[in-house]
């Protein structure tokens, strides 16, 4: 952590430092597409590659005989995703079911990075001598709004793609102007506006839901980490702080495992629901 020599960070500085991304440049506006958060990009790609590798290993080692524990776990996961996709998407699922499986595994791995100690990335950077170059580093891609909205924009593109593919250009345009209020020409503009708002709301809510939960979890981990270093902030309750740090950290980490899996499941299910809606005709 970059702080002035001889100056220990106060709680506000500690939290602010850990909530800043390693960005290509300083952000001066709310929306700036020229800025790249390198840490979010790195860990998103790394977890995507890891997820694909795990699934590839499972497929490569699959046998027709008695499966091992790893193969059984992957088969249970695949069957769960297949059952969900079958009940939601009424059409060809040759691409959609594997997509949902990939989303679940990918988001689970990205969320799981939140279980690592909050100061571990900074310590590793110091050990390898890159602290002068990498001044900030956030290891959880889903705690960055840019990362989660990126996923939701990808889902939006798939929604539009399947809307055109299943209904045709004419059918999809007809639906945009006639649903939900009817085919009267006076209702074309209200129908179009409502459908545009619906697409935007789905995209924003999908990204914000995952971001909000993971950001809150990351913030709680930071607050718990402060208990362990309470002596450095001029307090005289070091022992209580350490005990609280261990107990609260363990309890929250165990509970956060549920959040990690639940948010990945919700992301997968909403992806299936939105793509399934694109298959349905109004």
Question: How is this fold's topology laid out?
Answer:
Layout: H1 11-18, H2 38-60, H3 69-88, H4 96-112, H5 120-127, H6 145-178, H7 188-228, H8 238-279
Helix pairs in contact: 1-7, 2-4, 3-4, 4-8, 6-7, 6-8, 7-8
For the residues shown, what is the average pLDDT?
A: 88
Computed Rg: 23 Å
**What profile does the largest beta sheet have?**
none
Backbone structural class: mainly alpha
Would you mind describing this structure in some detail?
With 282 residues, the chain is mostly helical. Helices cover 68% and strands 0% of the residues. Helix 2 (38-60) packs across helix 4, helix 6 packs antiparallel against helix 7 (188-228) and helix 7 runs antiparallel to helix 8 (238-279). The chain is globular and about 70 Å long. The termini are far apart. Belongs to the ATPase A chain family. It is a multi-pass membrane protein. Its main location: membrane. Keywords: ATP synthesis, Cell membrane, CF(0), Hydrogen ion transport, Ion transport, Membrane, Transmembrane, Transmembrane helix, Transport. Key component of the proton channel; it plays a direct role in the translocation of protons across the membrane.
């Amino acid at each position: 952590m970059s702080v002035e020599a001889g100056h220990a960070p106060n709680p506000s500085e500690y939290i602010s430092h850990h909530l800043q991304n390693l960005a290509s440049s300083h952000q001066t506006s709310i929306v700036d597409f020229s800025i790249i958060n390198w840490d979010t990009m790195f860990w998103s790609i790394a977890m995507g590659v890891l997820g694909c590798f795990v699934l590839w290993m499972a497929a490569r080692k699959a046998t027709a005989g008695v499966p091992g524990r790893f193969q059984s776990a992957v088969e249970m996961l695949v069957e769960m995703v297949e059952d969900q996709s079958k009940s939601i998407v009424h059409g060809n699922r040759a691409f959609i079911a594997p997509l949902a499986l990939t989303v679940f595994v990918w988001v689970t791995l990205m969320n799981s990075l939140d279980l690592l100690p909050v100061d571990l990335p900074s310590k590793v950077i110091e050990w390898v001598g890159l602290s002068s170059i990498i001044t900030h580093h956030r290891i959880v891609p889903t705690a960055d709004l840019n990362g989660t909205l990126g996923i939701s924009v990808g889902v939006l593109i798939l929604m539009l793609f399947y809307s055109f593919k299943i209904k045709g250009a004419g059918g999809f345009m007809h639906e945009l102007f006639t649903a939900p209020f009817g085919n009267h020409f006076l209702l074309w503009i209200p129908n179009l506006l409502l459908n545009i708002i619906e697409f935007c709301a789905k995209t924003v809510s999908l990204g914000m839901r995952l971001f909000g939960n993971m950001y809150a979890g990351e913030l709680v981990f930071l607050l718990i980490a402060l208990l362990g270093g309470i002596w450095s902030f001029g307090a005289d309750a070091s022992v209580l702080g350490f005990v609280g740090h261990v107990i609260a950290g363990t309890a929250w980490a165990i509970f956060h495992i549920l959040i990690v899996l639940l948010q990945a499941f919700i992301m997968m299910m909403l992806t299936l629901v939105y793509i399934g809606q694109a298959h349905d005709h109004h």
